């Protein structure tokens, strides 16, 4: 069964019942190879977060928890020193780097030194030996770039799918880092502080190391994070300990998340923001979108970056999610964007007859102006409205 066919909670319960405590890896492999559903796509969860936030701690925690998944791990890293340190951290027994090793709970670990695509391609040659991939990025990585790989590479896209992006925030330094990002506004457009970018892209944000800060500091950090990303879930953790259903099988990027996404989009908190830092805006407009015009709208935002706010600054979208109603399509369509890549995918959900069709968008980024975006959507994307006029706020 596809993991997405049941809710995570149910799935956990199901597993808890029929999962033996120790499964020899050989037996499991044979079983998997015989399964007709081997063509099933493997989920990938990206674990990101600034240097030292607790990513590897989270990895180790997931690997040692009972979850009945065979998990492969990729460490997407560069520096030599930390590579050794991390392979030790993951293997916990000091086994050879790039070796496969099995843990008691059936996890398969493979630490891969190559960054990017090659690591995953190599890993996929071992297909059938694992059913989940965890990918830890370096603390300085832009998770958007990593996430994008899965969309660009068509071959890979047929074998794996991006399940979600988890961002671990270091409580102690998080506030400093994120505030610093607010203060460095004079950076040229596009150079957004990596720490806030990692928060902006997250489907789940773990505020980790809460043992190191006061309640007051924690509240402040939570507010800051919420103001950057109004869509992702936030949890507070120590030693990155978190119920696995909160980090695995999120289906944050695919059609299966249609139902929960719809609910979620209704509850996005758009905290008012006075400065120019990253923020979340959301709007909803009833009607049907013309697919071609919707593409132009998105491309202007993500590719051309030529949509301006009231201060004449160009808007920069880092993350985009939405549920839209496309003209002539009975199904609800989900819109996903990370950086310059985006995707429109039909969900299994149909619009109910006689009920209003609507379009709900959430954008996370910089210089975003909700009213302008909404108006632009109404005038350029909806089927009933007048065509675009030259007075629209497009940068030269
Ligand atoms: N006090 C405290 N320390 C923690 C907690 N979680 C992790 N640490 C420690 O923080 C340090 C960094 O944790 P890692 O998991 O290696 O962090 P990382 O994000 O993987 O680090 P890099 O890969 O180097 O960027 C380790 O010494 C952990 O033991 C926590 O909740 N509280
Ligand atoms: Zn690490």
UniProtKB/TrEMBL annotation:
Listed GO MF terms: GTP binding; hydrolase activity
Annotated keywords: Chaperone, GTP-binding, Hydrolase, Nucleotide-binding, Zinc
Catalytic activity: GTP + H2O = GDP + phosphate + H(+)
Gene3D superfamilies xref list: CobW-like, C-terminal domain, P-loop containing nucleotide triphosphate hydrolases
CDD domains cross-referenced by the UniProt entry: CobW-like
Tagged with keyword Chaperone: yes
Pfam families on file: cobW, CobW_C
Transmembrane segments: none
UniProt xrefs under InterPro entries: CobW-likC_sf, CobW-like_C, CobW/HypB/UreG_nucleotide-bd, P-loop_NTPase, Zinc-reg_GTPase_activator
Record's keyword annotation contains GTP-binding: yes
Domain CobW C-terminal stretches: 278-381
GO cellular component: cytoplasm
Xref: SUPFAM superfamilies: Hypothetical protein YjiA, C-terminal domain, P-loop containing nucleoside triphosphate hydrolases
Entry similarity comment: Belongs to the SIMIBI class G3E GTPase family. ZNG1 subfamily.
PANTHER family per the UniProt record, alphabetical: COBW-RELATED, ZINC-REGULATED GTPASE METALLOPROTEIN ACTIVATOR 1A-RELATED
Descriptive protein name: COBW domain-containing protein 1-like isoform X1
